[in-house]
Every structure is written in C-alpha cells, then in structure tokens.
Amino acid sequence: xxxxxxxxxxxxxxxxxxxxxxxxxxxxxxxxxxxxxxxxxxxxxxxxxxxxxxxxxxxxxxxxxxxxxxxxxxxxxxxxxxxxxxxxxxxxxxxxxxxxxxxxxxxxxxxxxxxxxxxxxxxxxxxxxxxxxxxxxxxxxxxxxxxxxxxxxxxxxxxxxxxxxxxxxxxxxxxxxxxxxxxxxxxxxxxxxxxxxxxxxxxxxxxxxxxxxxxxxxxxxxxxxxxxxxxxxxxxxxxxxxxxxxxxxxxxxxxxxxxxxxxxxxxxxxxxxxxxxxxxxxxxxxxx
Amino acid sequence: xxxxxxxxxxxxxxxxxxxxxxxxxxxxxxxxxxxxxxxxxxxxxxxxxxxxxxxxxxxxxxxxxxxxxxxxxxxxxxxxxxxxxxxxxxxxxxxxxxxxxxxxxxxxxxxxxxxxxxxxxxxxxxxxxxxxxxxxxxxxxxxxxxxxxxxxxxxxx
Lengths: 288, 157
Prior knowledge:
The complex is a heterodimer.
Chain A: E1 5-7, H1 12-21, E2 25-28, H2 34-39, E3 47-50, E4 60-63, E5 65-69, H3 74-79, H4 81-86, H5 88-94, H6 100-103, H7 108-114, H8 120-127, E6 131-136, E7 139-144, E8 149-151, E9 154-155, E10 162-168, E11 176-182, E12 193-202, E13 207-216, E14 223-224, H9 226-230, E15 235-236, H10 239-252, H11 263-286
Parallel strand pairs in A: 1-3, 2-3
Antiparallel strand pairs in A: 4-5, 5-10, 6-7, 6-10, 8-9, 11-12, 12-13, 13-14, 13-15
Helix pairs in contact in A: 5-8, 10-11
Chain B: E1 4-11, E2 14-21, H1 26-33, E3 52-55, E4 58-61, E5 74-76, H2 89-96, H3 106-119, H4 125-131, H5 143-155
Parallel strand pairs in B: 1-5
Antiparallel strand pairs in B: 1-2, 3-4, 3-5
C-alpha cells in the first residue's frame, strides 16, 4: 500500500472538516473493501479518515421502524436477536456476505457506499424500501435508497457528505422475505445474481397485496423489478402469474457478461430465482 | 518523511507501545514488528483466512486491518492459545484428528474454531461449516478438520 495520512476523528464535525481539508480523502469503516482497493492501487487516498472513533454510529434501534448506525457491522445484524425475530430475512442476507471474519469488520454503511451492484446489504435493503440519512456541513437529509446508487462503485454522495444512518420503515413487518444468492460456492463469493423478494400476502389464499423484487449484479446498480412487481398487486399468485412475474423481472435486468457469468445466464438466473423465491415463500408461509 | 503513529496494543496478554506507519497492516505488524510468525500471509486480501487473529474476542482477517486501527485493542494470535506446557484442547484435537497436513491454514482454523466454540459450545455440523467458511485448506479436503472441531467440542466439555 502506498503511504497516506491517517486521521481518527472523535466527532462527525471533525470528520467533515477532515473531508474538506483533503481533496483525496477516503472514509474507513470496516476496511474490507477499502484495504483491498488500496492494496491493488485501485484506490490511492491521500488521507484515510477512520470513522470508528465517532460515537453512536453502530447501534441498532427499534421503534417506529428500524434504525442502523452506518458503522453497524454485518455480523451484528446477522446475529441480532431483535433482527432475527422481527426481520429474519435481513439477518439471513447478512450471513451470506463473505465470512465471519469479514462480517466482524464489514459495515452496513460501507457495503452501501462502496456501491457494488452485487452488494448483499444493498440488495436486501432495496427490497426493504429503506431510507438513508446523510450528513454534511450543510445539515442532514433523508434519501430513499433507490435514489442512492449511481452506477458501478458509485453513489450519489457528494465529496462532503457522509452516510449516517439506515432506516427501514415499520411496514416491513407485514412482509415475508427471502434472499437468494447464486454463486459457485456456498460462501465467500460475490453473487452471480442475487435477489431479494418481500411479499405482503395472504399465504393461504395466495392473494398478494404487494411484492417487492430487488435484483443484484444484473445492472449498473441494484434495481427493483417494478414492472414485475406491478403484475401482482391485488392478484392471486397462480403458477402462471409467478412465471410471468419471473419473466418480466428477467426482462428488466440489464446484465453484462463478465468473468463470473454471461449476460444470458444471468437473465436465466433472474427468471429462475424469482420464480423459485416466490414459490418458496408461499410454501413456507402457507404452513404457518 | 511519512509520519508514524503511536499505538498501545495488547497481544497475547502482553502490552506493547509501538510506533507504526499508517499503511502497516496488523498482519505485517504481528509477523515483522513483533516476530509472531504463527499468523500466516496467504492471499493478503481477506479471502483465505490464513491471517485470522482474534481482536477483542472476534475473529478478523488481519491482512485487512491497519495496525493504527488497533490502538487500545486486545489481540490473540495462535501463539497465545497455549497456556503452559501442553497444547490447548483445540490444538490437540486438530493433531489427533489428522486435521493438520502442511499446517499453513492451521493457525487460522484453530483460532476460528476457538471463536466458534466460545460463542457456541455445541454447534451443529451446519453451524461449524458456516463459521469456518472463511478459512480455506488446500490439503485436507476439510473432512478431518470438521472431525477435529467435533473432537474439540468433546474435549472442552
């Protein structure tokens, strides 16, 4: 790694000042993406600002919805009894990221800000319709997550803006969810395709109130398959409809071919995983 | 002239007061500055787990941690597992089960096993596999490593 200045601010104000003082400063959260980039010289910061000295950035709160400090580790989300009880799909999705060693350091904020279209937390949080809270010298603002991503490894964050908090609205508790990640191994891989399905339905009659389908690794950013979602509003989820939903979702994907998979294979995977995900959700929850 | 940072860390219950450059990883600090070469450098990018150490009770890949982030931290390396003359039960289990061939992955595997059993003294087969997924082995095919973890569960009862 090239050399760099290292600062560990004790407050958000100090961090914001440091960001302004350097024209090439990077924020360090868990370091599991940043350090890899620095070792390959893909990223060459003049200054690394270690955020972990700032208090109140790594807690999970439950009240009117769920709030996560940006520095909450992926492991804390995976094992939190509160999350396992109330929104278990988030815990399971978190458990698919890397390994225990990675999850003990990786943070929910870092995963979002790195901006990978395949980011596990990004895809599940997109499906959960979360909001992000952003702070800057100009104040604070909320942003819906589907407006947060700008492209591969790019978010809308300006140079002087910092992600502070992630908020999942309370309505998430009405939904049952599933997170499916397809890759060559059972762990440690970046998904070839990863999907999150959140379904608000009567599982005995299969009448669907609302479905959310988030797709990862098949577009420049994580995306929602909105056309597919519109097909099932207030409809009965028959096998035929599920197949149509899956095909429509696949048509909304814009995957590239890369060393992991071809675009054709990714399109097929979207179709097959969306169908499988909805079927599994119905089977699992109809028994309850 | 690039500046050094002063850090105070505890490694295997011994306190150190060190001056380190910002770009020194914890892995390099342990191996080169402290001479603790039990922790191995495999991929140096967080994929293989050979560099696994326990920081404040949690397993991490030391190749992805900067030394300067560790000011005030308490770290255990494989050298810190053994107390006194005999091997720690987890180490003994790995030896007895044939879970060690070349030995390169072994320090990481053993520390991850320790962290697992500290959290969950009676893990299922799935829980063991899930917890150890960040530690790769090129020699054993993993069967005897899983045997070793199960043996360690019994030894620690």
